Amino acid sequence: MLHTELIPAQDKNSRQLMVMLHGLGDSLDGYRWLPEALNLPWLNYLLVNAPDDYYGGFSWFDYPNNIAPGILRSRKMLFDLLDDLRAKNFPADQITLGGFSQGCLMTIDVGLRYPHRLAGLVGISGWVFEIENLLKELSPVAKQQRLLATHGHFDSVIPFAPVREQIQKLQAAGLNAAWHEFPKAHTIHGAEEISVIREFVSQGRR
After folding, report:
1. Chosen CATH of 4-203 out of 1.10.3720.10, 3.30.420.10, 3.40.630.30, 3.40.50.1820
2. pTM of the entire structure?
3. How far apart, in whole angstroms, are the C-alpha atoms of residue 56 and residue 26?
């Protein structure tokens, strides 16, 4: 069971939800700024802690060695979380799943396998795990999912070029993947990147 915290929308009747997954060593506390930054009064937020302790924060999987077991375990936990949210009257097509770095990997890994169409997937400064396997295991609705992937030219943690190539492979496979690159390191590129994310999330509103 993942530890989560719901930050309600200003619009009390809204079922629109953004689930945010942090990166390695961070926690849900690292994304408390997001609601104010995105400034979407109709959007609820669910901030999530990854399951493994990591130097005062949390991680979704061991890194950099033997990452597969943790990813598979976290994938199942996130499937269960999304199913639970649907049971709590957050319709799948009103849920945006987003994440940074490790959280980006989990967003793409889960979002393109999940059997229900979501409002969108936002992957920031991450990468795709075992892309050939992912392309074999796409859900029946994967090509209806909307993906925004962003990355920085100066990312020294997760190099830019291989990630761009991965997203191009997803696009070539017929997936609806938008790619935005920024002159940034392993971070979020301030108001410019937030604006791109805001626009993408808004377009997925139903």
Report:
1. 3.40.50.1820
2. 0.98
3. 8
